[in-house]
């Protein structure tokens, strides 16, 4: 997905260095006054996501606190939250079907990891990142994720490739049907399948930490593009197809290059941060 940020252009203003003829000025002013100014074209802004979470299951030996933490982390990585989305203990507890205490501890862990921020006398929320910070995170993602892809090329099996092809096909269907939530989740699964195959736990942990901060940005950007009829099934599918081909050939250099291209192609973050510094 692309992460090039496009600045908003200011409308041009005309100027004149010579004084107009008095007679002509009245005629020109009258003619100008009769032509209504073209309204400034404004992009639709994506509204905060109305998130929903599935209740925790009781068939796991894990603690309720850790299950709540993993559920919230998965929701963030899957694009369920937008930048600035506030959360409350009451709502999360009701959705996940648990008490406040596990939710409180899960939020503390995720806040320490940068996924949420705690504001004075207010509910925790997803951070609103500046364009500068988004660029910095993207630069790190490009380096780390391209390295993971190169390492994954050595370990990729036919079963892994079949899974990637199925995920890519499902992503294209989600785009065609306008299911952005499914698209973001499937894109996350596509990428993390690759990074897990790399079999490099420290590298995977670093990538996941950056995704926790970036996933809401990606989600809101996609929603903005869809709202302006700019989202099609062409973009990431081409990149993902070439990524899969590189893995089929066990070509580490090509896998590295295609992941870099996927993360930096024009458009992926082109609609984020128009009102951010």
Model description:
This protein is mainly α. The protein has two domains: 46-128, Winged helix-like DNA-binding domain superfamily/Winged helix DNA-binding domain (Arc Repressor Mutant, subunit A), CATH 1.10.10; 131-264, GntR ligand-binding domain-like (Four Helix Bundle (Hemerythrin (Met), subunit A)), CATH 1.20.120.530. 59% of the residues lie in helices and 0% in strands. It is built from ten helices and no strands. The chain is globular, with a radius of gyration of 23 Å.
Features:
277 residues; Arc Repressor Mutant, subunit A; Four Helix Bundle (Hemerythrin (Met), subunit A); 10 helices
* Percent of sequence in beta strands: under 5%
Please indicate the count of domains: 2
CATH superfamily of the largest domain: GntR ligand-binding domain-like
> What is the CATH architecture term of the largest domain?
Up-down Bundle
CATH fold annotation of the largest domain = Four Helix Bundle (Hemerythrin (Met), subunit A)
Per CATH, the class of the largest domain reads Mainly Alpha
Classify the oligomer: single chain
Helix content: 55-70%
Low-confidence stretches: 1-48
Profile the largest sheet.
Answer: none
Order of helices and strands: HHHHHHHHHH
How far apart lie the N and C ends? Answer: 22 Å
Q: How many strands appear in the DSSP assignment? A: 0
Structural class: mainly alpha
Average residue-wise pLDDT: 80
Characterize the overall form.
Answer: globular
What is the rounded Rg? Answer: 23 Å
- Count of alpha and pi helical runs: 10
